[in-house]
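Lay summary. Proteins are chains of building blocks that fold into shapes, and those shapes determine what they do. In this project we predict the shape from the chain. Here is one chain we studied, written as its sequence of building blocks.
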Amino acid sequence: MSASADLDKRLVRRGFERAAGTYEEAAFLAREVGGRMRERLDFLRAVPSTILDLGSGTGEGARWLRRRYPGCSVVELDYAHSMLVGARDAASWLQRGVQRWKGVAPRICADAEKLPFRDRSFDMVWSNLTLHWVDLRQGLAEAYRVLRPGGVCMFSTLGPDTLKELRASYEQADGFQHVNRFVDMHDIGDMLVESRFADPVMDMEYLQFTYADIGALLRELRAASARNANAARPPGLSGRRTFARMGAAYERYRTDGRLPVTFEVVYGHAWRPERERTTKSGEAIVNFHPLRGRHGE
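And here is the predicted shape, written in a compact code that computers can read:
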């Protein structure tokens, strides 16, 4: 979970490969945010016939999209092969039979920055909490490329205040960067404009969860592969003293006997225009509509 330029992609892939067996149970945030994204589909009138689930994980989002849009071809793409194996195993026998009968390849292991699809292949690109793991500019450019004119990209990602308590506590403990950095909502909106998307809509909210102790928090984050994949991470493993100092620093946030953890969730959607409007110099003309951020529970 990082500002993309700082990522060590080998660590990203390794983390998700290792977390495949625990991800489905531990991905509390992805389930919550995915549900909120699904509510936003009610505002879209078009019914897609092809959807790319970008960063599909173990397939929960894709299974829901297939139920919402019967007959729609949903392709799951993930960087970690073991996640896709878990998605295959979780699919019903009926789903697997239909996919074989249609002769489709519903699950593809590939890099979101280099999508293995022809231009204008999909009516929708759906991405739940994935874009903070990739080079955001490249990921958005690829999403635009594979969308058909009039197609929509709908996504969620994480903003800079994510894990702010853990970040501050580690900084007090040893001064190293233990928590990855995230891109601000307004910068993401600028990147959508640069990628030529039309009418981007952005908003954000804060979600906060609580834990009995710091160990429980870190175990759940690791189980969902929310690991430090930053190139500037401290060398080697953090020692017991660092962990103890971090835990002591985190205690100042304890409220009503619980330790809070904050996630800044950024939502966005934008369209590939039916016909691109340009200035005389050839630059794309795009309208941008930011919404006010909201504070979640």
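What the prediction tells us: The two ends are 22 Å apart (CA to CA).
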